Amino acid sequence: MTVPYWRLSSFYFFYFATLGAFLPYWSLYLQNKGFNALEIGELSAVMMATKIIAPNLWGAIADHTGKSLKIIRLASFFAAFLFIGFLFKTGYLWFAIITAGFSFFWNAALPQFEAVTLFHLKHQPHKYSQIRLWGSIGFVVAVMGIGELLDDNPINTLPIISLVLFISIWLITLITPEANIAHQQMEDKGLWHIIKKPEVIAFFTVYMFLQAAHAPYYVFYSIYLKQLDYSNRFIGELWALAVVAEVILFIFMRRLLAAFSLRHILLWSAFLSMTRWLIIAFAANSLYWIIIAQLLHAATFGSSHVAGIHLIHQYFGNKHQGKGQALYSSTSFGVGGMLGSLFSGYYWDQLGATMVYSVAASCCLLAFIISYFMVGKHPH
Hints:
The chain is mostly helical. It is built from 14 helices and no strands. Helix 2 packs parallel to helix 4 (about 90-120). The longest helix has about 30 residues, at about 320-350.
């Protein structure tokens, strides 16, 4: 069966284009609506918290029914539908309810689509990065275009732009074919048998720390740069630069996977992540250093994510792939992202950006140490 390359790639394009609208600008939109740093951190934590529950719930259903695409279509539809609520009312409680509602469905879609993509690729998982790079391209297109748009238009237009992107995600799922999933007899080990392995526990812990470290970046980076007098357009360009670096890495990822073990890729990713957050902590007012920090996104997210996807593929096999991808999403982006968002929200005003990003660097140091001793030492 031919891999539906463009339909898979289009989902990633629009999904991450939506992230390109959210990550750099949503905190600025919330700030414009009168929310303070604590409230912005809490609203971001609500979004991350749904990643703890939603991917696991939908992942279990997907693995039981074998109908991942139907679940993705349902989740994408309700994410768009509930997002409409942002257009009609304001206030902290209302925003919290709508955020929890739409993100519960939105966060269910990507882990299952990752599983669908790997099932379509079957024995060619090394081609994953060639498809996933279109998500990075979508992010760049969105972040550049929206940054320019918001310099000339009120930021209140952001929810409308985001809604159009949510609808586009749903439309793409309607034309994406379901993958035929064949459970192999050799993969009859129970889920708990896999999860309780020390290496797997260490893996989830590492990615929880790495994503907790990303939270101050996702939630407060644009606000931080705004305080340093960078324009919306330039802030968008910096976000885009980070993802351009990620795209270049994805293009060469197949060669890197052939040349280096997943363990070495993860270790370098953790080390460079620590370096990046230290640069942002102490040198964000330097154009030279802030550009270097953005280029390091290729490692802090790009290579670490590809290593994570491949390790999950190895650990969980076909039978538990949906649940494995869901656990990866919920522990890293969910638990890690929620804890990081709450911490940065509570302490942003109290400790300041330098200390918050220094704590993020410390999380990456812990991830490096755990990876060095516990992850990827034994071949699979």
